[in-house]
Amino acid sequence: MAPKNRVIFNNYDVYAESNLKNNRDQDKSMSNVTAQIGIWTALAVSARLGKHALLGTFQFVNLPLLFTMISGSIYGMNIGIGVGFLSFLVSDTLLGLGPWTIVDGSLSALIGGVWSGISTRDRISLFILAYISTFFYDVMTSWILYMLLGFSPLNALILGVIGLFLPVAGGGVVAIGPMTEASTALLLSLILARIEGKFS
Questions:
Q1: Are 119 and 90 in contact, with CB atoms under 8 Å apart?
Q2: pTM, full prediction
Q3: CATH of the domain at 55
Q4: DSSP track, 47-75
Q5: How many Cβ atoms from other residues are within 10 Å of residue 148's Cβ?
Q6: Which of 108, 73, 76 is nearest to 195 (CA)?
């Protein structure tokens, strides 16, 4: 019976050691995810606050969404989602919290998760994909927020689309939507391709 018991104990030791290694790997992976979310969120928040300090509320580039798409594409879905939501939550804590915080953060997180599946580093393709993503974000956030203000879904959608090109609801800049989408997409296509080149 002794050899049989020894085999059982040996198998148990191997199993326990394997579990311990897996737990350590999971802890290390979670620590890495948390660190990356913290780093990219800090970059997004700092950039947004810096822009507000210099130019006020004038919107010409979506910096939180920019860093969300970059981090999601490089580091994966969990980080893209985390950066997308936290970058708006943390920065709005300093700039002003409201229903827009949940709407902006949730849609940014969604886009960050989607960008985890984008592996191309061709600058033209990146520009097009980032432009579409930013356009989707702008239309959807405006649509949802207008509905929260009491507009019907159709009227809210119409106002959201028109607001990208003409001043509505107190806006004062013509074609602010395409300007924001183009500048965000251009920065992403330049930065992401350059970062990837440094890592490769």
A1: no
A2: 0.81
A3: 1.10.1760.20
A4: HHHHHHHHHTT--S--HHHHHHHHHHHHH
A5: 13
A6: 73
| Number of domains into which the chain is organized | 1
Query: Taking Cα atoms as reference points, which of 174, 115, 111 lies closest to residue 138?
Result: 111
Q: pLDDT by residue for the chain (200 residues), tens digit each?
A: 555 555 454 554 444 444 544 444 455 577 888 999 999 999 999 999 999 999 887 788 999 999 999 999 999 999 999 999 999 999 999 999 999 999 999 999 999 999 999 988 889 999 999 999 999 999 999 999 999 999 999 999 999 999 888 877 655 677 788 999 999 999 999 998 888 655 44
Place of tokens 């849609």: 107
- Check residue 113 and report its DSSP letter: H
The CA–CA distances, whole Å, from 176 to 47, 62, 101, 155, 160 equal 19, 11, 20, 20, 12
Identify the CA nearest to 112 among candidates 149, 153, 83. Answer: 83
- Which three-class secondary structure state does DSSP give residue 129? helix
* 122 contacts: CB under 8 Å, gap ≥ 6: none
Name the residue range of residue 141's domain: 2-199
The pLDDT, as a whole number, for residue 86 is: 97
Q: Write 88-91 long-range contacts (CB < 8 A, 24+).
A: 88/64, 90/41, 90/45, 91/44, 91/45, 91/48, 91/49, 91/64
